[in-house]
Amino acid sequence: MSRQALIDHWSVFRPNSFADGKRTGIHRADVDVLLRRRNDSHVRDDPALPAEAVLEFEDRRARIQCCLLPQPFVGNLEAPVVICLLNPGFDPGDYSLEAEGSEFRRRKLKTLRQDFDGFDFPFFHLDPLFAGSSAFRWWSGVLGPAIHVVASEARVDYVTASKAVSHIVAAVEIVPYHSRTAKHVSHTMTRDLPSSRLAREFVAEIAGDGRRTIIVSRAAGGWDLRNVVGRSNVLLASESSYRTVSLTPRRPAGRAIVDAATAWLATSDNR
C-alpha cells in the first residue's frame, strides 16, 4: 500500500506549475514547507541561465534547485534491492539536459509514473543513452564495481550486466529536490515534507517485510531506520562523504546487488 501511495502522490505532479508567481518543479503538497520563511532563501525556483547554473555549482552554493524536475525515486519500486539516499545532486548541465522535449526529461517523468514500457533500463541513470549526464557518471561510479562482477560471473558484457542491475535496483531519495550539497536539507525539512513522509513509509514497510534488501546511506539519517538496521535485509552502504557512496561487492550491500542481478540474468529471456 505504501508503494501505491507514493506513486499516487507523484502521479498528480505537474511540472512547470507555479507557486508564488514563479516557475517551479515543487510538488504542490511540498510548497508550504519549501517556501516557508525559514527555507525560502535556500530554494532556487526560477530557471537558471547557463552562466548562472555554472556559478551556482562552482561557488558551491547549496540552494535547492526547484526548477529541475524532482527525483523522488529512480528505477522500478518493485525492485528487489532499494537504495535509500538523502537527495539528488546538481550539475550545471542539468538545466539543458531537462529541456522541454528532451528524452532525459521524458524518462524522468515516466519514472515518476512508474511507466517503463519499451525501456530496457528501468533505472535509466544506467542507460548508455544518457552516458553524458552527471547522473550516469555518478551512478556508474557507485554501481560500476558490482556491474563488473556481474559481467564476470554471468559471462556477459558490461552493458548487459548494467541492464540487469537496472532491473533489480531502485533508489529512493528522502528529499526529492536537487542540490549541490546537503547544507540546507535539514532535519525539519525531511520531517515535514509530505513527499519525505511517504518515502519513509514506503521504505519502512519493505524493510519490515524482510523479503527485499534495503541499502541505507549513513548520510541519510532522516530515514529513521534505527530499529531495523541489523536485520539481514537492511544493510549499510559505506561512504567517505555525502556524495560518495561505495557499493563494492566485497561488502554485503554490493554483494546483494550482484546476487540479485545474476539471478535476473539466469532467466534466459533476460539475456
Care to describe what's here?
By secondary structure, the chain is an alpha/beta fold. It has one domain. It has eleven helices and eleven strands. The strands form three sheets. A six-stranded mixed β-sheet has the order 5-7-6-9-10-11, with helices on both faces. Strands 3-4-8 form a three-stranded mixed β-sheet, with no helix packed on it. Helix 1 (2-11) runs antiparallel to helix 10 (194-209) and helix 7 crosses helix 8. The chain is globular. The model is unreliable at 17-21 (pLDDT under 50).
Supply the key terms.
single chain; 271 residues; alpha/beta; 6-stranded mixed β-sheet; 3-stranded mixed β-sheet
- Give the overall form: globular
- Helical fraction equals 40-55%
Number of DSSP strands?
11
Share in β-strands: 5-15%
Question: Helix and strand layout, with pairings?
Answer:
Elements: H1 2-11, E1 17-19, E2 22-24, H2 31-34, H3 37-40, E3 43-44, H4 50-58, E4 64-65, E5 73-74, E6 81-85, H5 94-97, H6 103-112, H7 134-154, H8 158-168, E7 169-173, E8 178-179, H9 187-192, H10 194-209, E9 213-217, E10 234-241, E11 244-246, H11 252-265
Parallel strand pairs: 3-4, 6-7, 6-9, 9-10
Antiparallel strand pairs: 1-2, 4-8, 5-7, 10-11
Helix pairs in contact: 1-10, 7-8, 7-11, 8-11
Briefly, what is this?
The protein contains eleven helices and eleven strands. It is an alpha/beta fold.
